[in-house]
Amino acid sequence: MPRLYNARMNSPNYKQPVSVLVLIHTPDLQVLLLERTDFADAWQCVTGSREGSEQLAETARREAGEETGLGRHEGKLRDWAYCSDFEIYERWRHRYAPGVTTNTEHVFSIEVAAPYVPQLSEREHRRFRWVPWQQAAEMVFSPSNAEAIRMLPQRLAS
């Protein structure tokens, strides 16, 4: 459940500690992974913080578009109604208000018909790969990414 934050924490100078994790995948469960530019060999799914008071589904669509070029109406968006808290990596804490050390991440998925060549945001990601979900879960650096990827087959079955 989203927390309430004071105005200073919602300042445009700081990221909100409320984010989305978006698994972009095909019907046969190939998962799109992106390699970060600021962390060599760090593979991940689409992630990003909520901006202002946007709805989390809008955050998921916006981030998928910004990081991969996926159109707002492309693919089937699913809200997993699942979130987890994690400790923000020390290397990125400067992006948040002083004293913020935990982020709440909400999971979404977008099913696309087939693998596509994403238009990467050069400031965020340097390479991409489409890999089977089992391999994707092993490749990602973030435990929350790995957990969500491992849940993917069950989520789609429901």
Q: Would you mind describing this structure in some detail?
A:
It is a single chain. The chain is of the alpha+beta class. The protein is 22% helix and 32% strand. It is built from 3 helices and 7 strands. The protein has helices spanning 56-68, 133-139, 143-157, and strands at 18-25, 30-36, 43-44, 46-49, 76-87, 102-111, 125-132. The strands form 2 sheets. It has a 4-stranded mixed β-sheet with strand order 4-1-6-5. The model is unreliable at 1-8 (pLDDT under 50).
N-to-C SSE string, H for helix and E for strand:
EEEEHEEEHH
**Share of residues in strands:** 25-35%
Please state the structural category. Answer: alpha+beta
Give the helix tally.
3
**Which spans have pLDDT < 50 for at least 5 consecutive residues?**
1-8
Sheet with most strands: strand arrangement = 4-1-6-5
How many β-strand runs?
7
Radius of gyration: 15 Å
The main sheet comes to: 4 strands, mixed
Considering DSSP H and I runs of 4 or more, what fraction of the residues is helical?
10-25%
Mean pLDDT: 91
Question: Distance between termini?
Answer: 22 Å
Note the overall shape. Answer: globular
Topology:
Blueprint: E1 18-25, E2 30-36, E3 43-44, E4 46-49, H1 56-68, E5 76-87, E6 102-111, E7 125-132, H2 133-139, H3 143-157
Parallel strand pairs: 1-6
Antiparallel strand pairs: 1-4, 2-3, 2-7, 5-6
Helix pairs in contact: 2-3
